[in-house]
Amino acid sequence: MIPKFTQKRSVYVSRNLSNVYELKRVSVIIEDFLSLSRNKQRSVTDEQINDIIQSFHPLIYAEATKKGITIDMELQPNLPRIHVNKNSD
Fold this sequence. Notes:
Elements: H1 4-37, E1 44-48, H2 49-66, E2 81-85
């Protein structure tokens, strides 16, 4: 039979280890959020609006087809270029 002192101590150690584990989990979550909020190097380029729309067309077309929607795309020529952040982060 284990003396009461040892049982209490093992429960105390077990709870403390659990608390340490939870604190580490919280710390990792906070670090993830902070890394998202930090300023990152931006890669801004000038792009044609029509090129951007055309790059999304396959995704939009696939989703619309699933829902029975028809899409007719009519793009205007000679639209101005726009500044685009090309980072995928």
